């Protein structure tokens, strides 16, 4: 993939400077940029991620070092957009170039540390900064974070300060506890009433996370000025966490739960709701995000250039057969050389009650604390 990435850099290099459309924008003080664009051929980037612990065990020998879970790809495709994978471990120029042709970026969930060098969070930093620049210039550009991606958004907004709390919300289906003014948010302002009824009353949101962002810390870290909280939920121990959030002046959105799992993930024993209502509510989030992407004017220079980048160049593999909680993943051979990743969301658990390493699932697992607390004799080496 190194060669492929180099080719890709050359190709998109030709596009620099041509991707920035002109926009009819009315800027208001601290308001989200207005966009009159309707782009019915949206193309969304999905950030790849270093392999998790289980994936490194199962696939590391095959030379893979980054991946995208296929459910995120389907989530975007199922709402009417095409997907381009975004690589980790690239120079900032790569992100500038690729984003100049994309209509939005999805930061997926998964399992990795934010401090890992050349990984997900570093790429996220570039993407976040570039997306802010676009929007500051009136160039509408949405960013969506799911689970770990949501946590990454607030982490980046806090300038890379860790502010998450440990919590316990794995295999936990929950309704959303909406704030009184949630209808004033962009994410929910035009949501159909039946979708709101489902989300408010039925345990349809699929939670798999062991970090939570709390309202207390949103305030403590100065993030509440820029971010609006639309709903909160409680983990297995009753700890309250933010479940939906949006930026007040950029089209940036974060959700702690996993709508793509309701529609596309079938691992047993995770209590992921597949009811018709769960699917309807989950699809709302995909439709909303792609609706935002339709407001972006960026384009690839031509169809042939897009074809070089689109995810169709890669084939997903059936990772569910090897205990991953992702049925399918796109596995990439890159040049990523970082530390191994922690255990996380990708682990398929046959056995939710047994407290083994691989049975702990989350979109980001604070495993070391757990380990040093409960299993002090196990060395770091055997863990990572
Ligand atoms: C990985 O790829 C990037 C972009 O092509 C390059 O700048 C970097 O030097 C590569 N890293 C390694 C360790 O080969
Ligand atoms: C990254 O964070 C994890 C969890 O806090 C910690 O255990 C690890 O040592 C850190 N790694 C680096 C390179 O700082
Ligand atoms: C992050 O850094 C920027 C630039 O230094 C600053 O304007 C902003 O207030 C900081 N935000 C937080 C939440 O610390
Ligand atoms: C706030 O963030 C800190 C990390 O800075 C974390 O240790 C703590 O648990 C968080 N507290 C709450 C209430 O979210
Ligand atoms: C799955 O979640 C539902 C809704 O919270 C709950 O009623 C049910 O008991 C759970 N099933 C299992 C097997 O945990
Ligand atoms: C659950 O774990 C136990 C102990 O590891 C094992 O014997 C059992 O077969 C597992 N059950 C399933 C359904 O995998």
UniProtKB/TrEMBL annotation:
EC number: 3.4.19.9
Record: active site: 147, 258
Listed Pfam families: Peptidase_C26
Domain of life of the source: Eukaryota
EC main group: hydrolase
Gene Ontology annotations for the cellular component aspect, listed alphabetically: extracellular region; vacuole
Catalyzed reactions: (6S)-5,6,7,8-tetrahydrofolyl-(gamma-L-Glu)(n) + (n-1) H2O = (6S)-5,6,7,8-tetrahydrofolate + (n-1) L-glutamate
Subcellular compartments: Secreted, Extracellular space
Keyword terms: Hydrolase, Secreted, Signal
Signal peptide: 1-21
InterPro entries referenced in this protein's UniProt entry, alphabetically: Class_I_gatase-like, Pept_C26_g-glut_hydrolase, Peptidase_C26
One Gene Ontology term of the molecular function aspect: gamma-glutamyl-peptidase activity
PROSITE patterns in the record: GATASE_TYPE_1, PEPTIDASE_C26_GGH
Gene Ontology biological-process annotations: tetrahydrofolylpolyglutamate metabolic process
Annotated SUPFAM superfamilies: Class I glutamine amidotransferase-like (SSF52317)
Family matches, as PANTHER family: FOLATE GAMMA-GLUTAMYL HYDROLASE, PROTEASE FAMILY C26 GAMMA-GLUTAMYL HYDROLASE
Family: Belongs to the peptidase C26 family.
Listed name of the protein: folate gamma-glutamyl hydrolase
Organism: Anopheles epiroticus
């Amino acid at each position: 993939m190194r060669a492929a990435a180099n080719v890709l850099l050359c190709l998109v290099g030709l596009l620099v400077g041509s991707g920035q459309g002109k926009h009819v924008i009315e800027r208001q003080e601290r308001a989200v940029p207005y966009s009159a664009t309707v782009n019915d051929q949206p193309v969304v980037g999905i950030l790849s991620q270093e392999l998790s612990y289980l994936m490194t065990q199962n696939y590391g020998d095959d030379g893979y070092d980054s991946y995208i879970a296929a459910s995120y790809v389907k989530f975007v495709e199922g709402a009417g957009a095409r997907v381009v994978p975004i690589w980790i471990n690239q120079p900032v120029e790569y992100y500038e170039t690729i984003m100049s042709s994309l209509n939005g970026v999805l930061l997926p969930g998964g399992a990795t540390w934010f401090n890992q060098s050349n990984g997900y969070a570093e790429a996220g930093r570039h993407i976040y900064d570039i997306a802010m620049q676009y929007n500051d210039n009136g160039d509408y550009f949405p960013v969506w974070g799911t689970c770990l991606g949501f946590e990454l958004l607030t982490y980046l907004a806090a300038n890379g300060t860790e502010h998450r709390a440990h919590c316990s919300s794995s295999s936990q289906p929950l309704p959303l506890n909406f704030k009184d003014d949630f209808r004033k948010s962009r994410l929910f302002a035009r949501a159909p009433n039946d979708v709101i009824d489902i989300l408010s009353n039925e345990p349809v949101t699929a939670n798999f996370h062991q970090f939570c962002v709390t309202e207390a810390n949103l305030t403590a870290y100065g993030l509440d000025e820029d971010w609006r909280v639309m709903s909160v939920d409680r983990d297995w121990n009753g700890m309250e966490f933010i479940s939906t959030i949006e930026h007040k002046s950029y089209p940036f959105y974060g959700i702690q739960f996993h709508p793509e799992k309701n529609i596309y993930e079938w691992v047993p024993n995770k209590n992921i709701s597949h009811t018709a209502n769960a699917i309807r509510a989950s699809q709302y989030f995909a439709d909303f995000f792609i609706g935002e992407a339709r407001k972006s004017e960026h384009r690839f220079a031509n169809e042939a250039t897009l074809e070089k980048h689109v995810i169709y160049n890669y084939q997903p593999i059936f990772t569910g057969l090897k205990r991953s909680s992702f049925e399918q993943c796109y596995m990439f051979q890159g040049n990523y050389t970082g530390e191994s990743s922690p255990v996380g969301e990708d682990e398929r658990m046959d056995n939710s009650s047994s407290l083994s390493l691989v049975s702990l699932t989350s979109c980001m697992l604070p495993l070391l604390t757990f380990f040093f607390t409960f299993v002090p004799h196990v060395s770091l080496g055997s863990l990572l």
